TrEMBL record:
SUPFAM superfamilies in UniProt: P-loop containing nucleoside triphosphate hydrolases (SSF52540)
Domain of life assignment: Bacteria
Protein source organism: Arcicella aurantiaca
Record PANTHER family: AAA+ ATPASE DOMAIN-CONTAINING PROTEIN, CONSERVED PROTEIN
Taxonomic classification: Bacteria, Pseudomonadati, Bacteroidota, Cytophagia, Cytophagales
InterPro entries for the chain: AAA+_ATPase, AAA_14, DUF4143, P-loop_NTPase
Domain AAA+ ATPase: 16-137
Pfam families linked to this entry: AAA_14, DUF4143
Protein name: AAA+ ATPase domain-containing protein
Amino acid sequence: MIVRSIENQIKDRLFKGKAILVFGPRQVGKTTLIKKIVSEIDATFRWFNGDEPDMRLALTNTTSTQFKALIGDAQIVVIDEAQRIENIGLTLKLAVDNFPNIQVIATGSSAFELANKINEPLTGRKFEFHLYPFSFEELCNNQGLIEEKRMLERRLIYGSYPEVINNIGNEKEGLILLTDSYLYKDLLMYEGLKKSSLLHKLLVALALQMGSEVSYQNLGQVLGVDKNTIEKYIDLLEQVFVVFRVNAFSRNLRNELKKTKKVFFYDNGVRNAIIGNFLPIANRTDIGALWENYLIAERVKYFKYQQLYGGQYFWRTAQQQEIDYLEERDGKIDTYEFKWGEKKNPKLPKSFQDAYPDSTFKVINPSNYNEFLT
């Protein structure tokens, strides 16, 4: 079994008098991870699955007496797919406040429901973690750096979901099943989402312009809806961990683009499944976008798992000067260019260097990307 980066972090926070929350997309291994942790602890536990109607009913608006009857003598209570349970935040608050010696763990694949229902009730009462498809570092720790680097082209095409990693040779089938059966499951249960065909068309449009600046206005015109609807749908896709947005960086220069955004996918394989393109790297015209998406998505995982805090951006001016990616942490700016071809040797734009003289610059290519992701 591939060890997940947050496993020891979760173990270190057990029985500290707070709920443990694990967010992440469906099918990334949240249930598997929590089962592993619970099985290695000498403690009794009770497992509730929010996908089951009777368990949802039992945990909705429960009292402390009813909750105690439900869990019996369990020392650990796991609520899987907790976003399905109405008022789950109040139930978790009740458990933490009334049973401080019991460890409550909740998993959720849908942040727009779970996070909105828990933030206020659980203020100061929770530890939050995120789990994503396997990270580069997790895969390196499992099979070694050399072997994982040999798999780079497969990662760019098929991504890093457990279903893909564990079924070499059947990656395409696994990804199609994932996107057809699980990707939209939480969104389509959301009462405010009525146009599933629009959702798919939007995902295709985002996949085709992955790594490019996104205009809600232009997308709306192409898809026949207003820009506010496009923004709402992208926000929902972000909250169920399908895509994420990266903002433009702007501090000093008048001609820096300030309001533009790029949209990336958490997993290359999901992106390629949406547009039905699993061609090998040698036959791709979008290798630059695949390479950029892979590196930025992996860097997002790295930030979360290492508990790093800082801004992640791209940079562009009205004169078309640009930097693929930059990070701002503790007052320091680090900039990066992503090049699949190792012979290319770009330089930091002079206007940026003049405006931010203390910034660093590095080109990331297939020969050195491991240093960027570990």
